[in-house]
Automatic annotation (TrEMBL):
Descriptive protein name: Uncharacterized protein
InterPro entries: RtcB-like, RtcB-like_sf
Superkingdom as given in the UniProt entry: Bacteria
Organism: Escherichia coli
A GO MF label: manganese ion binding
Biological classification of the source: Bacteria, Pseudomonadati, Pseudomonadota, Gammaproteobacteria, Enterobacterales
Protein's GO biological process: DNA repair; RNA processing; RNA repair
Length: 59
């Protein structure tokens, strides 16, 4: 597996961030976003992830 997997109530978060620090606030924001009922399959996270003041665009 080339990614870190965060499990949530709805969809998992697949993080391709090996060796890259991810801010705790960004990680929590991703978990909260993944819990939304309209997220399909999973959320993909790239190494340049950071917390934003508005909901992030996710793939």
């Amino acid at each position: 597996m080339n990614y870190e997997l965060l499990t949530t109530e709805n969809a998992p978060v697949k993080m391709w961030t090996k060796g890259v620090p991810v801010e705790a606030d960004a990680r929590q924001q991703l978990i909260n976003t993944a819990k939304m009922p309209f997220i399909f399959k999973h959320i993909a996270v790239m190494p340049d992830v950071h917390r934003v003041k508005v909901p992030p665009l996710v793939a």
